[in-house]
Amino acid sequence: MIVKITTSGLCGSDLHLYEVLGPFLDEGDILGHEPMGVVEEAGSEVTEVAPGDRVVIPFNISCGTCFMCSQGLHSQCETTQVHAQGMGASLFGFTKLYGQVPGGQAEYLWVPFGNTLPIKVPHGPADQRFVYLSDVLPTSWQAVQYADIPPGGSVVVIGLGPIGDMCARIAKHLGASVIGVDLVPERLERARARRDGARPQRA
Ligand SMILES: [Zn+2]
Ligand SMILES: [Zn+2]
After folding, report:
1. pLDDT band at 33 (very low <50, low <70, confident <90, very high)
2. What is the whole-number distance in angstroms between the Cα of residue 132 and the centre of ligand 1?
């Protein structure tokens, strides 16, 4: 399907493409892997979304139906795996290292697997309410799950950028005591503002 982009996040991972992964970047590559927007057109076999639907697009391109996807291992989707580079599933906007799929820093985005990949969200609330579903929220949620915090336990989050801050919010939401560590005053202030037993702020 073709999605008209309304918001596209910037990611700390994008910085890798300007630094250590720079050699994989080709002229004409379009970056951006945290997009959302409105379906402009859908292929004839797409039944789950229709033009006009509002969707968030996960950064990880997975078919949703192969063996790995059916085990919940979407980042190793067998349909989009980048064998040439020895990588897992393709990613939007992340160079030939991950399939050279054009990314979401654009007016329109081509999105495969229209029946299984997009996350349909309601019209109405601002984009900022949903756009983190693409990467920041699931990435942080997974990090907190991997930390395996025992009930009533505590966790140290090193770095309170977008992912670390979201990890802190999620861990707190799940009942953990959170110790956030960073050197940037504004980040510490943002975490501190949620210190006193408050539920996570709504974006
Ligand atoms: Zn990202
Ligand atoms: Zn798959």
Report:
1. very high
2. 9
68 alpha carbon – ligand 2 mean position (Å): 6
Q: What angle do CA 190, 195, 197 make, to 5 degrees?
A: 140
- Global confidence as pTM: 0.89
Among 134, 142, 130, smallest CA distance to 202 is for 130
73 CA from centroid of ligand 2 (Å): 8
Q: Which domains does the chain have, with CATH numbers?
A: 2-133 (3.90.180.10), 136-192 (3.40.50.720)
Tell how far the Cα of 152 is from the centroid of ligand 2, in angstroms. Answer: 36
Strand ranges (E), the chain: 2-8, 35-41, 54-56, 108-110, 119-121, 154-158, 177-181
Task: Give pLDDT, residue 199.
Answer: 43
How do residues 167-198 score in pLDDT, each as one tens digit? 999 999 999 999 999 999 999 999 888 876 44
Residues around ion ligand 2, judged by CB within 5 A, are 62-63, 66, 69, 77, 79
How much distance in Å is there from the Cα of 116 to the middle of ligand 2?
10
Confidence check: pLDDT of 142 > 80: yes
